[in-house]
DNA sequence: CGTCAACATAGAGATATGTCGAAACAAGAG
DNA sequence: CTCTTGTTTCGACATATCTCTATGTTGACG
């Protein structure tokens, strides 16, 4: 946790007003909708949660994710791809296996967008 | 802003661990996915933003929302219904007009779910 | 009562999404 | 090189979603 990260978060808040601040323009609405749509599926939410619960910097192999669902492997791969295209996770291949991790800044950006003024006060 | 509200928010945080805390069970994943899916459409995001930017306790008449889009009135009505079914907004008819307002606790619950431990530290 | 205005609901059509099995691709082992 | 295992891509299908027009409902006003 660094001062730098604090600044980044502050910047996000400054550049990206929350849902209550002002009416969304078309472009930003489309951009945000794409990310929320990625979260709008129970399988993807569980996948994200499984990866995120590894902690900051943690990684999960696909081979650990697949058996957690009653779905075919291609289906899991497809959902992981959507999460990645939404900018919520990223991955890297190391040898035979592919490892996924979350991009916390993406999640935090969404959280800041959703926060209402009242809740912001409550935390402060 | 009351002490009561602070307690409610605290409760939410306690009862509903964030995405990074622990793997989501099926039931909660389905429940959350329904809400995120409602946010996964640019029209609905803009609608929510238009309503939310009225401030806490603020209301917007449908007759103000419809002209803000290049869509038919039934389509707007449909999207408002989905937002309402997701528990993000509520409405009331007063005479000829129907007024919508946001339910801030729903938004805050989502924000808490998305917040990563690092961001939570940054705010604290 | 009749009419008008504001919203909601119903039904239909085009497109998007979730899922699968089959096949392609990548990398290590023999 | 060939075989096996882990993963992604492809093609197809059923279902869901978004949008429209047409119709229904609710309440205000003569």
UniProtKB/TrEMBL annotation, chains A, B:
A GO term, aspect molecular function: DNA binding
SUPFAM superfamilies on file: Winged helix' DNA-binding domain
Keywords: DNA-binding, Transcription, Transcription regulation
InterPro entries documented for this protein: ArsR-like_HTH (IPR011991), HTH_ArsR_DNA-bd_dom (IPR001845), HTH_MetalResp_TranReg (IPR051081), WH-like_DNA-bd_sf (IPR036388), WH_DNA-bd_sf (IPR036390)
Occurrences of domain HTH arsR-type (ranges): 24-122
A family per Pfam: HTH_5
NCBIfam families (UniProt xref): HTH_metalloreg
Full protein name: Helix-turn-helix transcriptional regulator
Organism of origin: Streptomyces tuirus
